[in-house]
């Protein structure tokens, strides 16, 4: 499935799911597109077929998932990654920082969670901007 077009991905997966007796799907891709994860989550919810995303866009963690979805993603969430980053900053007493980010989808959630972590902490973080 080398085509990243959402329509062709959905059609191809539905063709495979309807033509074979499948108990589950392990999906890996080399994109970084969250759209792949959203499509797989939707397909899992609609078909009740468990799907495991192990790499690329399929492993970009979605929260929340579709009702009835059995889509498991083997990746760390943005929140988990930021918690580790802040633990390292705290360990070395690096309390002043700025955030440098791209404008790719999800960057606003990243920035928002940085604010949640710094506002709810007893550490005197000096957030110098984005």
Automatic annotation (TrEMBL):
Against Pfam families, the record matches this protein to: ANF_receptor
- Keyword line: Membrane, Transmembrane, Transmembrane helix
Its main localization is membrane
Residues forming coiled coils: none
Q: Where in the cell is it found?
A: Membrane
Record keyword Ribosomal protein present: no
Q: Which residues form the Receptor ligand binding region domain?
A: 33-101
Q: Which Gene Ontology cellular-component terms appear in the entry?
A: membrane
Q: Which domain of life is it from?
A: Eukaryota
Report the protein name in the record.
NMDE4 protein
Q: Which gene name belongs to this protein?
A: Grin2d
């Amino acid at each position: 499935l080398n085509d990243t077009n959402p329509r062709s991905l959905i059609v191809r997966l539905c063709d495979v799911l309807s033509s074979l007796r499948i108990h589950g799907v392990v999906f890996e891709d080399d994109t970084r597109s969250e759209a792949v994860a959203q499509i797989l989550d939707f397909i899992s919810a609609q078909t009740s077929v468990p799907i495991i995303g192990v790499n690329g866009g399929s492993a970009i963690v979605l929260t929340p998932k579709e009702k009835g979805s059995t889509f498991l993603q083997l990746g760390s969430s943005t929140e988990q990654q930021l918690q580790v980053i802040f633990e390292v900053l705290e360990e070395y007493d690096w309390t002043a920082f700025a955030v440098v980010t791209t404008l790719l989808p999800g960057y606003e959630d990243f920035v928002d969670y940085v604010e949640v972590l710094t506002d709810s902490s007893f550490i005197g973080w000096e957030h110098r901007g984005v």
